[in-house]
Amino acid sequence: MPSRRLTATAVENDRTGSETLTLVDTAYRDLRRDIIGGVFAPGQPLRLEVLRARYGLSFSPLREALNRLQSERLVQSAPLRGFSVAPFSAAQMWDAVETRVLVECEALRRAIAAGDDAWEARIVAAFHALNLKTKRLATRTTPPSAEEAQEIETSHYEFHRALIDVCGSPRLLDLSDKLYAETERYRQPTLTGRTPKGTPRDVALEHREIMDATLAREEARAIELLAAHYRRTATLVEASLEAE
Amino acid sequence: MPSRRLTATAVENDRTGSETLTLVDTAYRDLRRDIIGGVFAPGQPLRLEVLRARYGLSFSPLREALNRLQSERLVQSAPLRGFSVAPFSAAQMWDAVETRVLVECEALRRAIAAGDDAWEARIVAAFHALNLKTKRLATRTTPPSAEEAQEIETSHYEFHRALIDVCGSPRLLDLSDKLYAETERYRQPTLTGRTPKGTPRDVALEHREIMDATLAREEARAIELLAAHYRRTATLVEASLEAE
DNA sequence: CTAGGAAGGATTTTCGAAAGAATCAATCTT
DNA sequence: AAGATTGATTCTTTCGAAAATCCTTCCTAG
To answer: Which is higher by pLDDT, A10 or A204?
Structure first.
């Protein structure tokens, strides 16, 4: 079966049109998912032979994918000692969160100044979609499946992204994406578990307040709410980290 | 000569102690230097075969180095179309500069709050070293050699780095480094050429004012001066870009 | 009994070739 | 003559093996 190298992924993808996925892209996507999803524990070495077996790829695309992930601080590497999953630490999480606050508040500031009708509509739509999915899950007793959790996560991402999408700076959006992925890793345990004892938190309300202030173009208030939103999450994550 | 693969670089480096350089590291360093130095023109495709001949390396380390450079926005790539030098544009430069202002002003804020005696000493030393080199060059009529230009550039970097080194955030420092490299590429033509007609600019004075405000812990003033410093450079670069 | 060092195995890094995709030019069709 | 098609060429991407390095263990000498 030597003829399925690039083709396999191209076929898998030809539904979407002209975008071509190389094996590097699939390796990147899969590794990222598995690291964020906790399949590999923080600090764990990522032996190339193991990855080769798991993903059915050769060294080259794996190394390249790992390099990309390193630039997002999801993996670490030492010169002749290979790669490993970036370790967990409260300090690192707070640094990521505070950097995210800095970046996204600036982006939100610019978006509020530049946003048009389409921008507002997209925010409202994303908020609604996220709420639908969240509420549907809240009424059930069974824990969400992996796909459902992923869907919520995507909607959550899209809401926050919709807020700042029109900020006009590719670099700020890029940074926002990377920091989102980095913090997602830390949120994961919090999400699958329940909220730590007696901390009633209405995330949907927080989102609504951020949205309202943004659409009302109340810059200072929107920024304040957004920052508080991220820091509140970080505080909870920190608590659950220390609980180990 | 099959025995000089990793050894060549290890030997070259064993003066500094235990750090080992892989071929990826050297490829990264050399490519970065050449791209920033303008050896490869903006937009120019970076054919692997050409790079292979130029640097005497195989594809693997080159690809990995190019990937790293891509995360710093010094090179671009399209899925099956290879790599190319990131193109020049005023918009991209301004985005990099404004992001740098955001990041470094925050870092400076924190450094001013956290800095101790050693921090102050290092700033003064870096400022002095930079001034020495600059003045030595200013008294001459011959244009600076490549090494001299590189030395100035390094001193300049070290001064700006000394200001924020104690900010406490690895991410902010990392971003600062990347954005420095990115903007260095744009400054290069301005540096080697003369200042555009009749724009008297005393960079040394600007540096001194930033340093003074910083050491006096006048946060607001230091930040304002730093931002103005970067934006002034950007304005000059923009003018020389439009002059083409 | 401990420190130093060498052998062996595990792992990363690098290489060169082979496979797949894009590009360009020439040819054929309408 | 314009557009589509085919073929040759160039280039990127991927692979698997070889080389270099790290790490562990075992041995020897003090």
So the answer is: A204
Q: What pLDDT digit, counting tens, does each position of B69-81 carry? A: 999 999 999 999 9
d(CA A98, CA A92): 10
Q: Is the CB of A5 under 7 A from strand C?
A: yes
Q: How does pLDDT run across A9-67, given as a tens digit for each residue? A: 343 333 333 467 899 999 999 999 999 999 999 999 999 999 999 999 999 999 999 99
Joined together, the tokens standing for residue B181 give 């490299």
Which tokens belong to A215?
A: 């659409």
Indicate the residue type of B146: A
**Is A102 close to B98, i.e. CB distance below 8 A?**
no
Q: Is the CB of residue B239 inside 7 Å of nucleic acid strand D? A: no
Which nucleotide's C1' is closest to B79 (Cα)?
D12
**Kind plus residue range of the DSSP H or E element containing B140:** none
Three-state SS string over A177-235 comes to: HHHHHHHHHHHHHHHHCCCCCCCCCCHHHHHHHHHHHHHCCCHHHHHHHHHHHHHHHHH
- The reply to whether A95 touches chain B by the CB within 8 Å rule is yes
Residue A95 has its nearest CB partner, among B20, B103, B169, at B169
Give B193-228 pLDDT, tens digit per residue.
455 555 678 899 999 999 999 999 999 999 999 999
State the pTM of this model. 0.91
- Residue A216 CA to residue A213 CA, distance in Å, equals 5
Rounded CA-CA distance B66/B47 in Å is: 11
Say if residue B157 is exposed, middle or buried (CB neighbours under 10 Å; 0-12, 13-18, 19+): middle
Q: In what side-by-side order are the strands of the sheet with B45-46? A: B45-46, B82-85, B75-78
